[in-house]
């Protein structure tokens, strides 16, 4: 899961994705022990596995999460961790409660490292399903925001957008540059949802953008800004 970090604004034209440490959707994993078909999921084993990472408060926090990621061979910034958090219905980025762990891992039938590693391809496939991806994208907003805030701070929003759209949306690097130089310091839920719709429906040359459509002002301003740059 991406870590919230403050970044300095930049006017550089060469932004791309290099500001974000985002790992591949298809990163190869360390070899793991094969799971026997006779192995049966064990709730007791799953709970014991949880306590390998949980603190005294019975929550897997940042330190435990780092060890968990190391053990399963996935970097915290890998999008697979976001998909896993979605499957666990985790409420807060960087934390798994005991209830979230047991419910989610039971649904996945995972009670050990090897079983979870065997589910990585399944988790990646969720990103290729239009409906599942939309649900993951929407989930990411509440997952990543500070719970005492109704909006995402703009740095976190940029990190999450890079994770979710950076490799698939042709206009992402341009949109990132727009956010860098804009007045926006937060992104609300309506803006967040509409960015996905915009990325799916508006052509890279913006030729089919409807100025009279119900887009949020943020996207109207982005289109205007980009058209000025192209002239």
Chart the SSEs and their pairings.
Blueprint: H1 43-51, E1 59-60, H2 62-72, H3 79-88, E2 96-97, H4 98-108, H5 113-117, H6 120-125, H7 130-144, E3 152-153, H8 154-165, H9 172-181, E4 186-187, H10 189-201, H11 217-230
Antiparallel strand pairs: 1-2, 3-4
Provide structural commentary.
- With 231 residues, this protein is mainly alpha-helical.
- The protein folds into 2 domains: 43-126, Recoverin, domain 1; 130-229, Recoverin, domain 1, CATH 1.10.238.200.
- Helices cover 50% and strands 3% of the residues.
- The protein is built from 11 helices and 4 strands.
- The chain has helices spanning 43-51, 62-72, 79-88, 98-108, 113-117, 120-125, 130-144, 154-165, 172-181, 189-201, 217-230; strands spanning 59-60, 96-97, 152-153, 186-187.
- The strands form 2 sheets. A two-stranded antiparallel sheet has the order 1-2. It has a two-stranded antiparallel ribbon with strand order 3-4.
- Helix 1 packs across helix 4 (98-108).
- It is elongated, with a radius of gyration of 19 Å.
- Mean pLDDT is 88; it is low at 3-38.
- Residues 41-227 form the DCUN1 domain.
- GO terms for molecular function: cullin family protein binding; ubiquitin conjugating enzyme binding; ubiquitin-like protein binding.
Which terms summarize this structure?
231 residues, Recoverin, domain 1, 2 domains, two-stranded antiparallel ribbon, two-stranded antiparallel sheet, 11 helices, DCN-prot, PONY_dom, phosphoprotein, nucleus
Biggest β-sheet: strands ordered side by side in the sheet: 1-2
| Uncertain runs | 3-38
Q: State the end-to-end CA separation.
A: 39 Å
Please, how many helices? 11
Q: Kindly state the number of beta strands.
A: 4
